[in-house]
Amino acid sequence: MAPPSIRRFLTRAGSLLTCLLVVLAACSPRVEVQSERSRIATFSRYRTYVWVSSAVAARTTAEVEASLLDWRIRNSVDRALAAKGYVRTEGSASLLVDYDVVTRERNTDTFREFFRNRIEEPFAQGSTEGTLALQLVDARTHEMAYRASATGVIDEHVDRRRLEAAVDRMLADLPHVMEKGGTR
Hints:
This protein is α/β, with parallel strands linked by helices. It has four helices and six strands; from the N terminus they run αββαββαββα.
């Protein structure tokens, strides 16, 4: 058994680490995810998908950021759909996939920013918050089969891991493809 001084140190260090993790979790932006699947869509028919819009090209330095975001979103969606058994194709597909990003200014509401805004010339007014909206449309009927959105996932510094986790949550209710054309 460890001496009392070491036990006290470990207890204090553990408490400090717990407090630090709680503070970090509170400071990180919260991602809100919503999804909805059609009640009339026949998911057993869906096995392949194609992107409706083409990838964003970076022809100028101003377009590099948009192109990088497009690439990250497409890779995250491709990875999540592949994990569920869907196959991307460039030809005829059973699902048409597309996304949109909508941004808006968000006021800050943290304790620290509350006091920063009390200064005569506030320097922390807010930030840009983005919503990623994903649509999967039945290629034959052109009816919406599945849609999902994640608010708070797109910002000035798009974190790849946070984006991938949000896309996974967005597609959590999408059925898996089964071996013989069905879904599980």
